[in-house]
Design brief:
This protein is α/β, with parallel strands linked by helices. Helix content is 24%, strand content 25%. The chain has eleven helices and 22 strands. Strands 1, 2, 15, 16, 17, 18, 19, 20, 21 and 22 form a ten-stranded mixed β-sheet that branches. Strands 3-4-7-8-9-10-11-12 form an eight-stranded parallel β-sheet. Helix 3 crosses helix 4. This is non-reducing end alpha-L-arabinofuranosidase.
Length: 505
């Protein structure tokens, strides 16, 4: 948690770090990914058979090795909007017998060459856990139950035996399952009202938990600030023993929300992720309200937030039906740094966060037939996933603020927008990590940093010559620069930069 005091720009800013005051554990799942049958994410991204860079399974080895650097704990699949017309049975069994289908989310043709078994094998190669989304559009409950039994079944049942017939004897033990994706949206096939969705989600959850009580079921929320979120939580977060449930198991484990941010102007762009912070706070209160109003006993686990789509994305400049291949700037990298600061500050509530997406599609990692490019936004992810683990710790910031226009506009009336966006953590070995984004485009910030121990502070800096530079022009204009600070006096955080300071408490 980071508290804030506004001071005049003429005063010296202060960051006070209290390493002994642990607020809440940081769930490693906040560094999760997302792969959808969209653009070049799957075909030509993670899966590229025939390419010399691919292994015998068609998996791009360079992509796997790069993603391993991020230590990604969970990857969501197969969508996204794609899932609303996806039938998992089309993507299992002999590849030459799989049907090609029209794909309505992104207006292409799905060959089904890559499906459930291929994705789960790819997850094993990466060393990550899978997270599947059910088809709540054209799909059925029977189809969903069959998918779970195919993945997790151990008995002599039809779908477990089908998995065995397809070459996999042992169950995959897929734990995370979403009850649909963005079914509230007008772009969805079989868009639903909140009333219809809540009734359907409850009945599906009952059946799914009867089949496999170990599943973690994720409710389809909106952006965390809507009546949809309130209504679905109120209807679906119920006591274990209730008129809605014939099982002793909690039906809903997590609540999903989505948000993308972007602006063509730097300061609105880099402050936009603060909308996600307020959305998390509102969603957390809605979860509590559902628990209180429904009389859920305190010994029942409290649902957490699954922020399973987030990123910087302007759908007009990177259109989804054209592959959504963004070219990211330093400004976008700093916005991603603020996004990640938000997840650290709100670690009490966020049980998972999945950047959308992991390869090529609005992604920090891009492929060509000859190799990969790590975009500007790769480096904040790399730094945070490597170092910002353990517990969120109490931190206080005193600084001036940006007082101009925000995107969305409502941020200006609800959130402070300090020049220094900050989070801090401590891990089990006692290493303190302080992440600071100086959002100012033109001004270095000399800051008094309180709580630093020792004279060997490791420094990791992400910056560039200006906020418009990219890594997509054949040069690494933005990366991580390493140095050391003696911990004495004021520390200067460069203009338009992300800095991570690290010391042993």
């Amino acid at each position: 948690m980071t508290s804030f005091t506004k001071i005049p720009d003429t005063e010296v800013p202060t960051i006070s770090v209290h390493s002994s005051r642990r607020i809440s554990p940081i769930n490693p799942n906040i560094y999760s990914g997302f792969t959808e049958h969209m653009g070049r994410c799957i075909y030509g991204g993670i899966y590229d058979p025939g390419n010399p860079l691919s292994d015998e399974n068609g998996f791009r080895k360079d992509v796997l090795e790069a993603l391993k650097e991020l230590d990604i704990p969970v990857v969501r699949y197969p969508g996204g909007n794609f899932v609303a017309t996806y039938h998992w049975l089309d993507g299992v069994g002999p590849k030459d017998q799989r049907p090609a289908r029209p794909e309505l989310a992104w207006l292409g043709t799905e060959t089904n060459e890559f499906g459930t078994d291929e994705f789960l094998q790819w997850c094993e190669a990466l060393g990550t856990e899978p997270y599947f989304a059910f088809n709540f559009g054209t799909g059925t409950l029977d189809e969903a139950l069959g998918w779970v039994d195919y993945c997790n079944g151990t008995k002599n049942t039809y779908y477990a035996n089908l998995r065995r017939k397809n070459g996999r004897e042992e169950p995959y033990n897929v734990k995370y399952w979403a009850l649909g994706n963005e079914v509230w949206g007008p772009w969805q096939v079989e868009q639903m009202t909140k009333e219809a969705y809540a009734a359907k989600a409850t009945q599906w959850a009952k059946a799914l938990k009867l089949l496999d009580p170990s599943l973690i079921l994720i409710l389809c929320g909106q952006d965390g600030t809507s009546s949809w979120d309130y209504y679905t939580l109120k209807q679906c977060v119920q006591p274990r023993v209730s008129p809605l449930s014939s099982t002793q198991h909690t039906l809903i484990d997590m609540h999903s929300i989505h948000l993308y941010t972007a602006s063509s102007s730097h300061l609105p762009n880099v402050t936009a992720p603060l909308a996600a912070e307020r959305a998390i706070e509102i969603t957390s209160s809605l979860i509590d309200l559902a628990l209180v109003e429904n009389g859920v006993p305190p010994d029942q686990p409290r649902p957490t937030i699954c922020f399973d789509e987030w990123n910087v994305w302007d759908p007009l400049r990177a259109e989804g039906s054209k592959g959504a291949e963004e070219t990211y700037t330093l400004s976008d990298a700093l916005a991603v740094g603020v996004w990640l600061n938000v997840f650290i500050r709100k670690s009490k509530d966020v049980g998972m966060a999945n950047i959308a997406q992991s390869v090529n599609v609005i992604s920090p990692l891009m492929t060509t037939k000859d190799g990969i490019t790590k975009q500007t936004t790769w480096w904040p992810l790399w730094l945070f996933s490597r170092f910002m683990r353990g517990w969120t710790i109490a931190t206080h910031v005193s600084s001036g603020t940006y007082d101009g226009e925000t995107q969305p506009k409502w941020i200006r009336g609800i959130k402070d927008t300090p020049w220094l966006d900050v989070s801090a953590s401590v891990n089990e070995e006692g290493w303190v990590s302080l992440a600071v984004v100086n959002i100012h485009e033109d001004k270095d910030m000399e800051v008094k940093v309180e709580g630093v121990v020792g004279n060997d502070v490791k420094v990791y800096t992400v910056t560039g010559k200006d906020v418009t530079v990219t890594n997509m022009k054949g040069e690494q204009a933005v990366s991580v620069q390493e140095s050391v600070w003696d911990g004495q006096g004021l520390y200067t955080f460069p203009k338009h930069s992300l800095t991570l300071l690290r010391w042993k408490a």
